[in-house]
Design goal:
By secondary structure, the chain is an alpha+beta fold. It contains six helices and five strands, in the order ααβαββααββα. It is globular and about 40 Å long. The N and C termini lie far apart (45 Å).
């Protein structure tokens, strides 16, 4: 009986270690952030957008490029508009959770700033879609977030 309990403990620990070591390496889907942005952009929901470099994303949001497989970020070329697309694919789900928290905090801060500074942009940023799925974290800020979000959910299938 004692040997059976030890064997069960060893099997459970081994299974847990195997699951942890897999991390995001064997994600059921792979999303090409650039291709997803192009699909979303083709819907005409974004104004003229400019791509942000990984270092600019680090400076703005604190997302470490060394912890990510890909970072694709486009923001309104007109700095007064809040429109944005950001897809981050991290190396592990724990960092994705951290990124999601950072993004939620920063966008909440931006929303409060825009409430006073440019109230016409406030409804857009206050309805930002921030979503984490495994190692992916997505931010969409646009007039019709739902139409753009559907493209993302289709990419996850």
């Amino acid at each position: 009986m004692q040997m059976t309990k030890k064997l069960l403990v060893v099997l459970v620990v081994t299974a847990m270690l195997l699951l942890v070591s897999v991390g995001c390496k064997k994600a059921p889907v792979s999303i090409d952030g650039e291709a997803l942005y192009e699909q979303m952009s083709a819907l005409g929901q974004f104004p003229e957008m400019a791509r942000r470099s990984d270092s600019a994303v680090y400076d703005y949001y604190g997302i470490d490029p060394a912890e990510c497989k890909q970072i694709v970020n486009y923001a309104s070329a007109d700095g007064l508009m809040t429109d944005e697309f950001l897809l981050v694919e991290t190396n592990d789900p724990a960092y994705a959770e951290e990124v999601e928290t950072m993004l939620k905090n920063q966008i909440a801060y931006q929303a409060e700033t825009y409430r006073e500074y440019m109230p016409e942009e406030y409804p857009k940023i206050s309805n930002a879609r921030i979503e984490r799925n495994g190692c992916y974290v997505l931010v969409i800020i646009a007039q019709d977030v739902d139409a753009l979000y559907r493209l993302y959910t289709d990419a996850l299938k």
